[in-house]
Amino acid sequence: MTSIDVLLKRHDDMGEDRKGDRSSPQPSLHVAILTCMDARIRVFEMFGLLQGESHVLRNAGGVITDDMIRSLALSQRKLGTREVLIVQHTNCGLSLVTEDSFKDELEEAGGVRPTWSIEAFREVDDSVRRSVQRVRRSDFLPHTDNVRGFVYDVFTGKLTEVE
User: Fold this and answer.
1) What is the strand order of the sheet 54-59 is part of?
2) Do 135 and 86 meet the contact criterion of CB atoms below 8 Å apart?
3) Is the Cβ–Cβ distance between 75 and 140 less than 8 Å?
4) Rounded to whole angstroms, how far apart are CA atoms 10 and 112?
5) How far apart are CA 67 and CA 49, in angstroms?
6) CA of 22: how far to CAs of 46, 50, 52, 53, in Å?
7) Model-level pTM greater than 0.85?
8) Cβ-count burial of 90 within 10 angstroms (0-12 exposed, 13-18 middle, 19+ buried)?
9) Are 76 and 82 in contact (CB under 8 A)?
10) Any idea what the Cα angle at residue 147 is, between residues 83 and 44, rounded to 5°?
11) 146: alpha, beta or left, given left = phi > 0 and alpha = psi -120 to 50?
12) Sequential pLDDT tens for the chain (163 residues)
């Protein structure tokens, strides 16, 4: 059985027990949460979220990239979100690579160097600050006043705001 098969079985086993409001694509809390794709980050459990309350965007590192700005622009302009919560974390894989070394690896493997940024970082607090500033400075986002960034400690579960 593949991992996809396992997930599909779990879905079937849920039956009708699927909590949350599904009547609208607009999140009822009017917030978008951007975080890392790391499997240790359980966004819904971390914030006690129910389905339908928030947009949850994930990518490597939980960094604000052009594609995240694209998603946030749609989230804000078409689906009513007004706040952005950025959550990066300790022990992130992006802190273990460098921009050039990973691009070199990809170029060697595929013959083409990526044009996009890896967004590697050493200090997670600095990365959170950069991401918050990218949201606040974006010309595409109408709601940039209530943007906050946090670091989630994957070992303790503690969430710390980055000023």
Assistant:
1) 54-59, 31-36, 83-89, 147-152, 159-162
2) yes
3) no
4) 39
5) 24
6) 21, 10, 6, 10
7) yes
8) middle
9) yes
10) 60
11) beta
12) 898 899 888 878 877 766 666 678 899 999 999 999 999 999 999 999 988 899 999 999 999 999 999 999 999 999 999 999 999 999 999 999 999 999 999 999 999 999 999 999 999 999 999 999 999 999 999 999 999 999 999 999 999 999 9
Q: Tokens 């503690």 map to which residue? A: 158
Residue with tokens 């705001």: 161
Amino acid at 138: S
Q: What residue has token string 């500033």?
A: 133
